[in-house]
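Forwarding the complex inputs:
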Amino acid sequence: MLTKSTAGNLLRAYCDAFRRRAGDEIENLFAEDAVLDLPLLDGRIVGKKAIAAEIKTAIRGLKNIKVVLENTIETDTEAFAEGIFCADHIGIHPLVDGTPIRLDFRFVVTVKISEGKIVRWAEYFDTKPLKPRERTHLYPISRRSAYWEGTAKAGVSEFMVYNHTYLPLVYHHSPAEEYAALTERVTLWDVGGERQTQIRGPDAIRFAQLLTTRDLSKLKVGDCKYTLVCDPQGKILCDPVLLSPWENVVWLSHGDVDLTLWARGVAVNSGLQVEIDEPDVQPVQVQGPKSLDMLRNLVESRLDSLGFYKCVVTKVAGIDAVVSRTGWSGGLGFEIFPLSSEHAMPLWNALIEAGGPYGLMVTGPNVFRAVEKGVTDTAYYSNSGMNPYEAGHGRLVDLEKGEFVGREALRKVAAEGAKRKTVGLFIDGELPNLEWYWPLKDSKGNAGEVRWAVHSFELDRNIGIAIGDASLELGDVVQISHQGGTTQATVTKVPFVD
Amino acid sequence: MTIHAQLNAFRDAFNRRDSTAALMLFAEHAVFEMPLLGQRLFGKREIAIGLQRIFEVTESAQIQLSGAKESQNLIIAEGRLQAKLHRDAHAVDIPLAVVLETQQNDIMRLSTYLDARPYRLWTDGTLFASVHAFN
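Prediction (whole assembly, two chains):
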């Protein structure tokens, strides 16, 4: 029997569909030109398509949803109700003491319909208890990024210390909202903590050859390369993006390791004419499918013709900068390196303004997407004693290019075969926060470590990347121990998504 | 008095900053919920302090109601709260909903729903620090 499309019935249908995470059903309840007012959103959402996108994003980030309507007063065309919403977040870990971070609140909703469809949906509730209450305290011993003012305004609440610099990770949006912004629109990341080790001088490329594992003999100005820096034992120190912005200048844009100190030490007895320093260059990343559209008119050079892993010295919003088509999202995106932190905030403000029409969201680097795409970084290798072959990066080692730090050790590994390998995991059960690497044991009793673990929003399941015994095969089942107990996982390939 | 009239009477007293008139509308053991105050207020004594607190920290505070639906003992209304704090240069304008329940012509519950996140820093202190001043 068909239910009459009164405001009250559509209100109840919406709540029921939301509880079942049935986004398509909700979409069909709205009129084409409907409006949605919701305190959690940054502004009014207009149009059925945009409303559906927001609601589907919200649903993707929630589970165990309950909606209780307590007091409903309705006519055929309008319904006002008071109720309670409860849900578990996906992708937000409990507090250290185990307190879950939930999305529970009381609300009032008002619904107006016309011709059997919702034309206005407005909710009223207090978001303060639902958001991070305040940002992490900072201490002057670590550096603030040059974009500090912008990230504070954007609602940063949590940082990691990266290259002795506070790197913003958590803002006030949910992981699902940030993931949607990255995969459907465009995001701006303050990665001022991503430092450049600058090698300058007539022997700059020769020295970079000595320091890194890939062959740079064909490197041209404007090229970038993803490469590795190893210690003499062949263990990975970091996996920088190498940029060649000018003649006789190489930047190693690196993860959380004192690479400049290391490079200075290696340079001392190298006999090569180079100067090593860390310039006052603090990048941002603009990542997402709309990044090119957003930047096209802001960057003086023609970005459309800038190839993958290429860079150009140009102006961005009139500010001198290097722009590279690189980034940590595994998709379309750019890194912008202003040539002085003095111009960092003007650059940031110009990017915020330019990104408005494209739905730009300020976020931290998105680890959910990075793991899905198999984009690991220095954090994956750190404190692991991992060599490139174990990391799945054997292709980044050119043993025949000439001398480089770690070559002899890596030659031995290559000849004997790596004892460990990097694998993907589908992990069962709830995921606690990965505050240290989780021990893993395979069916033969070999040990390993889970080094990344997140919820995959694309696959709607928990995934991880681990290092284990070289004998691990696709489909093997392994045991994992974490602070929530013991669970099992199935070995799969990396990346998890194309 | 109808429930709609009760709601309008509260709104008018609030907008006049007349805490005495507003308080007279409440039952002795009523509940008043206002996110800007950070908590639920029980009974006339706490409600009086809460209202006083609002009027102390604001230079102006006006509730405007734009639509309401009512049953016999309950009314739900939507509108806006415009308020200017003494410390701020500009007024804020916040979407607001109000749920009011009555019993024998007295307000038993008045719940206000608004997003206080950007505006609540000024009540992060102890609300009842000055309770003795009212005894």
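Residues 75 and 405 of chain A are 77 Å apart (CA to CA).
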